Amino acid sequence: MATTADFRNGLCIIFKDDLYTIVQFQHVKPGKGPAFVRTKLKNVKTGKTIENTFNSGVKVDTARIERRPYQFLYKEGDDYVMMHTETYEQINIAEDLINAPQFLKEGDSVEMVVHADTETPLYVELMLNVILEVTYTEPGLKGDTASSTALKPAEVETGAKVMVPLFIETGEKIKINTTDGSYVERVR
User: Fold this and answer.
1) Which of 35, 67, 105, 166 has the maximum number of C-beta atoms within 10 A of its C-beta?
2) Residues with pLDDT less than 70, the chain
C-alpha cells in the first residue's frame, strides 16, 4: 500500500484491476482547491498509456514486479521453453507474451518480467538489438539507387523478413532493432 507521496517513475501499481507502471507524474497545488497528482500510466500487459489524476494522499495498491534473466531453449508447439539462468528452472511461455518472437533464436538471453507476488510471467523482452545472419536477399545492383537510403527485403536465420540496404549480401551478419524490426548496422 502506498500513497501519492510515494509515487515515482517505474513504480508498479494496481489500478482498475490491472497492473500499470508510472511513466510520469506531477504534484499540482492549485491556488484554490485541494492538491492532486497528474500521472501517465502504462499498462504492463498491453503497453497502452493512459492519463489519470489522483487526489493528493489517496492510497493505491502497489505490485512487486521483478526482471529475471532467462535463456530461450527451444520452441515446443506454440510455446517457447525458457530456462532461468541462475536456478535452471524451465518454463513454457506463450508467443503473445514475447515482444519480438520473430527475432528469437535458440540460446538467446532474454529478460522476463514476473509479478513477484503471484509468480506470474507478465512479458518477455529481447535485448534491444540482436545479431542475426542474412539467409537470403536479392543481390544489389550498382547505380540502382535514387537516394542513399534505398532498401531491399532480406530474410534472416529466424525466418523474419527485414528491410536492409542494397550493399548487404546473403551470409552477412546484421544488427536488428527488436522494438521496430529495423536494420541498425552490418556486423563484421
Assistant:
1) 166
2) 141-148
